[in-house]
Backbone:
């Protein structure tokens, strides 16, 4: 959740697309 992949809360999601796979809410 630190990357905010599922939440999409921050530019980190665009940087780490692999992180989005960790928490896809």
Residues:
């Amino acid at each position: 959740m630190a990357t905010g992949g599922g939440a999409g809360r921050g530019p980190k999601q665009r940087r780490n697309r692999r992180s989005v796979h960790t928490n896809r809410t």
